[in-house]
Automatic annotation (TrEMBL):
UniProt lineage: Bacteria, Pseudomonadati, Pseudomonadota, Alphaproteobacteria, Rhodobacterales
Subunit (UniProt): Homododecamer.
Record-linked InterPro entries: DHquinase_II (IPR001874), DHquinase_II_CS (IPR018509), DHquinase_II_sf (IPR036441)
Amino-acid positions noted as binding substrate in the UniProt annotation, renumbered to this chain: 73, 79, 86, 100-101, 110
A single GO BP: amino acid biosynthetic process
Short name of one Pfam family: DHquinase_II
Site feature location: Transition state stabilizer: 17
Name of protein: 3-dehydroquinate dehydratase
Top-level taxon of origin: Bacteria
Catalytic activity field: 3-dehydroquinate = 3-dehydroshikimate + H2O
Gene that this sequence comes from: aroQ
Family matches, as CDD domains: DHQase_II
Amino acid sequence: RNILILNGPNLNLLGQRQPEIYGHETLADVESRCAALAAELGLVTQFRQSNHEGQLVDWIQDARGAASGIIINPAAYSHSSVAILDALNAYDGPVIEVHISNIHRRESFRHHSFVSARADGVIAGCGTEGYLLALRRLGSVLGQ
Ligand code: DQA
């Protein structure tokens, strides 16, 4: 079973970017931890990051019929992107939204996520461990 893990803008700077909020781990570290857990769970992950909304939309469209589930940290696009919401609404499998920080404890403009209207589950404030929790959830939802 194939899981697509998508990361939105500025997450390429994870580890360097506001480490007091997002921690010191890099996105490459998160990718390898996800791959290791996925192997244990009998899943295969494809891990991607883009700073471009349209690229994320294209990848979500490509997941139709190709990925068993999606984990997405839409980053700042969570709070603005109807296009990403629409793309996810055209995808049939389970979707888990992840935020490294607790968006509800931060500025009010981060409290609303368009993606949450589609997500089957939302994980926020668990640090990068949120990606691993999301993988475990998809593993159980998909019957692994
Ligand atoms: C984030 C939270 C967003 O508000 C922010 O724009 C991000 C990262 C998180 O993982 O905590 O870039 O999605």
